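tool=predict chain=A
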Amino acid sequence: MELHTVITFAAPPDAVAAMLGDGTFWERAGERVGALENSVAVEGPAVTLTRTFASPSAVERFVGPTLHMTEVITWEGLEATHVATVTGVPATYHGKIVVTAHGETSSSATYQGVLKVAIPLLGAVLEAQAAPLVIDSVELTEEVGAEYLADRA
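tool=predict ok
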């Protein structure tokens, strides 16, 4: 299932890309999205997020009470590859993040990718249930980003 969302920030692209590569930002974002466990590692251009979430009730009987997710976001300039996997579940996300300017003091981060749950007969249904949760999670990072940037102004 293809996913696409755009979030905006009151900062130039370089500041937004720097924020999206900062472990402190992602630690705050993990707390905001409700991660039960939240680990962030930054090595050069790569940000690795390891998080545990309570399973949504619709999938709990299939995956258990928690989901363990690993995301790797690797930056090159104002673009990043974004790959996410869920431990023990054939679910993946492969996409990119592109930061673009909107005037001199505003930027957007476009998240675009493919969410895939490779379970016969149920995959498409689970993708449809997961998609809004993924989009909501990205949109919450917009709020965290506004706070992060305001703290540094």
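The first helix runs from residue 13 to 20. The two ends are 38 Å apart (CA to CA).
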